[in-house]
Write a structure and sequence with these properties.
The protein is α/β, with parallel strands linked by helices and about 250 residues long. The protein contains nine helices and ten strands. α7 links the parallel β9 and β10. Bound molecules: 6-O-phosphono-beta-D-fructofuranose. It catalyses: alpha-D-glucosamine 6-phosphate + H2O = beta-D-fructose 6-phosphate + NH4(+).
């Protein structure tokens, strides 16, 4: 894995957007894997600026989101469908039929998961997958204990994730307890992975991801087996890395 430590959230967002923009220019019909959560919001804002000001063209880009809450309709204010519209899709020239997010309110969720996997394959697989990281080391909604060979499926959310995400709902009781999520294997099949981590609350997970043994207990550590992962983190997220790890950052990128 390669990593880069930047000063703050603004720099993290700019660096992430720069990597995505490079991909979009290099391959205008790229397939991007997208993430929700607060971390990538700044990256989406910067990409929207690049579209407006620099004519970065998304018209041939296809996107697949990592996950969606079970039970929320596509127009629920806390659904990831609405999140993506608000933070990214409506600000750029992505075609609606090119954007994909699993349906968390499908009547048959198992069929929905299979359909989603097939859609990713039919699109030719994911070129660049953007990831955040949970405070417990989850990626997508693959909570600790998720199998390395897991694919898109219904997952139960860990108590910590429910607590972490309660800030987006009016009460913790409203946070869904399950989600449809791409699996670890689905994520590992992306040709390139860019993981973003910001803030002290991610420091322990980042340390275990980069410096711990790969283990299903820290799903992000399973990324160590992927040949092309870039981690972009700010100083607070990097605060628990060993001195050696911090010093080698540039050599490793
Ligand atoms: O960026 P945040 O809001 O800290 O969320 C981190 C992670 O949590 C999730 O939003 C799910 O809880 C992931 O999709 C994301 O990667």
């Amino acid at each position: 894995m390669k990593w880069k430590i930047v000063e703050n959230y603004e720099e993290l967002s700019a660096e992430a957007a720069r990597l995505v923009a490079m991909q979009v220019k290099k391959k205008p019909d790229s397939v991007l894997g997208l993430a929700t959560g607060s971390t990538p919001v700044g990256m989406y804002k910067e990409l929207a600026r690049m579209y407006r000001v620099e004519n970065l063209d998304f018209s041939r880009i296809t996107t697949f989101n990592l996950d969606e809450y079970v039970g929320l309709s596509v127009d629920h204010p806390q659904s990831y469908h609405v999140f993506m519209q608000e933070h990214f899709f409506r600000h750029v020239n992505l075609l609606p039929e090119h954007t994909h997010i699993p349906s968390g309110d499908a009547s048959d969720l198992a069929t929905e998961c299979t359909r989603y996997e097939q859609a990713i394959k039919a699109a030719g697989g994911i070129d660049v997958q953007i990831l955040g990281i949970g405070g417990n080391g989850h990626i997508g909604f693959n909570e600790p204990g998720s199998a390395a060979d897991s694919r898109t499926r219904v997952v139960q959310l860990a108590q910590r994730t429910i607590e972490d995400n309660a800030r987006f709902f009016s009460s913790i009781e409203e946070v869904p307890t399950a989600a449809v999520s791409m699996g670890i294997q689905t994520i590992l099949e992306a040709r390139k992975i860019v993981l973003l981590a910001s803030g002290e609350s991610k420091a322990e997970a980042v340390h275990r991801m980069l410096e711990g043994e790969p283990t299903a207990e820290v799903p992000a550590s399973l990324l160590q087996q992927h040949p092309d992962v870039v981690v972009i983190m700010d100083r607070s997220a990097a605060s628990r890395l060993s001195a050696e790890c911090k010093e080698t950052e540039h050599a490793r990128l």
